[in-house]
Specification:
Layout (H helix, E strand, L loop, with lengths): L11 H4 L1 E5 L5 E5 L4 E2 L6 H10 L4 H6 L3 E7 L5 H13 L4 E8 L3 H8 L8 H13 L1 E3 L3 E7 L2 H10 L4 E6 L13 H9 L1 E9 L4 H9 L3 E5 L8 E5 L10 H6 L54
Helix pairs in contact: 2-4, 7-8, 8-9
The structure holds S-adenosylmethionine.
S-adenosylmethionine binds next to helix 4 and strand 5.
């Protein structure tokens, strides 16, 4: 962008994100804060489509529905939503979408647009998401959208209070070891409260601790197809129908220490929070966890599905 004197005007938010090309040729950002890509290195576009849009069966349901409600947790560059809106309106151009996006950093979608990363999607979708990144709200005939900027642990409670019931929820935080606060039983219980009785939740993660937290939130879980040589993702619903059962190895994994879910009772814990103090007067060494069946956010372990 040129300023009135003809000088290149630097866009500071762009400097924070390094562009990387993934195996399907699509680009994504690398986050130096979380030290990982925003999408799978096997393919950013492929991941949006295969692990989120197809798993939540949006095109099929759009074809027979006049409206759909969608929650995109960790909106980021907007790829999952761009792929979802494209699929919905290809199936039914009249389908009205009620959309809620949760994102901590408003610079991410703005930087994606400034880098032309939404160009591969249809012009109507790209233009809507450009307006959304700018105004954080959108009211059109086919879409009502609200981008809620802040910690998703807080913004999800707004959706719970408003009794939003989503047909599809995309759960796409950074990997559990780097962002455990968005994979805790407490957070996922609030997320589950926003899932309609026949809705689908999709995530790229197959971590046992994530799957057990979804089960603790009351949901049934299934596995979703891998992309590239990557691991399977996870789908969750209130009922097991239409879910692909986990294979024997994944089921056994749910009975190991790796499956102990993260706990964040106050919704304020961080990955590097100190462990809780020992009981008074015992002189005991503080345990890393509140109780042997719970993990604090500081105890996250890596899984092959992490990016
Ligand atoms: C893996 S990226 C999401 C990619 C995105 N779904 C897409 O399709 O482009 C994770 C996103 O989570 C956001 N994030 C990190 N911590 C968060 C928090 N506590 N609450 C809400 N968003 C958060 C980051 O800013 C980042 O944009």
């Amino acid at each position: 962008m040129l300023d009135p004197t003809g000088q290149l005007h630097r866009q500071p938010h762009l400097d924070r994100f390094r562009l990387e090309t993934t195996a399907d040729g699509s680009q994504t950002f690398f986050s130096s804060e979380f030290n990982q890509l925003f999408h799978s290195h096997f393919g950013a576009h492929q991941e949006a489509d295969a692990k989120f849009v197809q798993v939540t069966r949006l095109a099929k349901r759009a074809a027979r529905r006049s409206h759909l409600t969608l929650i995109d947790i960790c909106y980021g560059l907007g790829y999952n939503t761009a792929a979802a809106l494209t699929a919905i309106w290809q199936a039914n151009p009249q389908c009205r979408v009620h959309w809620y996006g949760l994102e901590a950093d408003r610079d991410v979608p703005r930087a994606a647009i400034a880098a032309n990363l939404l160009n591969p999607w249809p012009d109507t979708v790209r233009q809507m998401l450009t307006d959304l990144a700018d105004a954080e709200t959108l009211d059109r005939d086919t879409i009502q959208a609200r981008l809620l900027i802040g910690d998703a642990r807080q913004t999800i409670t707004q959706l719970c209070r408003a009794h939003i019931q989503a047909d599809a929820i995309f759960l796409d935080p950074f990997a559990p070891p780097d962002c455990p606060q968005l994979w805790s039983v407490e957070f996922l219980t609030n997320v589950a409260r926003c899932l309609a009785s026949d809705g689908y939740l999709a995530t790229y993660s197959c971590a046992a601790a994530v799957r057990s937290a979804l089960i603790a939130a009351g949901l049934q879980i299934g596995s979703t197809p891998p992309i590239g040589r990557n691991t399977h993702g996870t789908a969750a619903r209130w009922t097991p129908d239409s879910l692909t059962p986990l294979d024997r190895r994944a089921r056994e994994h749910l009975h190991t220490r790796a499956a102990v879910p993260y706990r964040d009772p106050d919704g304020t814990d961080t990955a590097d929070s100190p462990p809780p103090p020992p009981p008074r007067g015992t002189g005991a060494i503080a345990p890393r966890t509140h109780n042997p069946l719970e993990k604090t956010l500081a105890t996250a372990a890596r899984c092959p599905c992490d990016r």
